[in-house]
Write the C-alpha cells for this entry.
Amino acid sequence: MGQRFFFQSYQRSFVNPLRTARGSWATREGFIVRVEDGNAGIGYGEVAPIPEFGTETIEAARAFLQRVVEAPELADDAGELAVLPCCAFGVSCALASLQAGRASSGRDYNVAALLPAGHAAIPVASRKAQQGYQSFKWKIGVAPVEAEQSIFSQLAAGLPAGARLRLDANCGLSVESLESWVRFLQAHRGRIDYLEQPLPVGQEAAMARCCEGTGIAIALDESLNGADGARWLQAGAWAGPLVVKPALAGDRRRLIERLRPVADQIVLSSVFETQIGVENALQLADQLPELNQAIGFDTFGAFADSLCALQPAAVIRFDARRTFSPNTLWQQLLHTS
C-alpha cells in the first residue's frame, strides 16, 4: 500500500493578543498533516503559515493539502512546494518522522523568555528570572523610542547579573530610531545579545552600517524569509545572528543542509506552533550540534488549549519531549472538528 495523506485544521486564540510593531495578533491558524504508510507507519508534520513573513496564505496551504490528499505524489513536487514554504516544511517533516519513528535520542535546549511589549515586560521578566531564564526577548518599536528606552533601563536594572536581552523590532524602526537605540545601548553592551531585525527587509546594508564598530550585534529575522532570504544563510553573508523560524523555511532536508555551515550563528525561533510543530523544529535542531544559542520557544503558555503539553520552562528537556504522542493531538482535533 502506498502513502496516504490527511490533514486537520486548527485555530487557537492567544490568552493575551501579541503586540508587535506589526500590530496585534489574536488568533493562530494552521494545519496538522498525517501521512500513513502500510510499511513504515505514521508520520506527522505541521503547516503554520504567516503571510506577513512572506509565506503562503492559509487558503493556499489548505488548497495544496487537499490536493496532496487526492494526489500523494505532489508531496515530492519541488516546483509546487517552492512557493509554499510552510507546506514544504510540514509535509517533509511528516515524511521524515515516518522514516525515523519516535526519536530515541535528542538534546535539551535553553529557552529565551518572551516578554510582552511595553511596561508589562518588567513584572514578567522578574517572574521569569526567578524561574531560571537567562535570556530575555523584548518586543520594541511599539511605543515611542524615548518611552521604550526608559522602560529598558528599568527592565535591565531588575534582571540578575549575567542575564542577556534581545530587542526585537519586527522591522518597526527607522534608521534614525535605530541609531538612537545603538547610541543608547552603548552603556548596556554587556547585557545585550542583539537587536533583531530593526529595519525592513531590503535595508540590510543600512543595518550593518549602523552596528559596525559599536559592539551591538544586529540579527536578521524577516530578511531570511521569502524567495530571497536564503542568500543570507550563506557562510559569510551576514556577521551577526540569524533568527530562523523552521516552520516558515521550506523543505526540512534542504533546510538542514543550508543551516549546517552557519549553525553557530543560528537562533531557532517559534511561530506559535502546536507541539507537533515544536517537535518538528527541535528534531531539525537535533541535527545541528553546533547550534548553541538559547532558542525562542517560550510560547507554550500563550494559549489556553491543550495542543501543546509541554510546560513553559527555561529548558526544554528531551525526556519531556519523548513522552509526547502526536496521535493524541490528532485525535483531539478529529473530535473537535
Remarks:
- The mean pLDDT is 94.
- Residues 109-323 form a domain with the TIM Barrel fold (CATH 3.20.20.120).
- The CA atoms of residues 235 and 261 lie 6 Å apart.
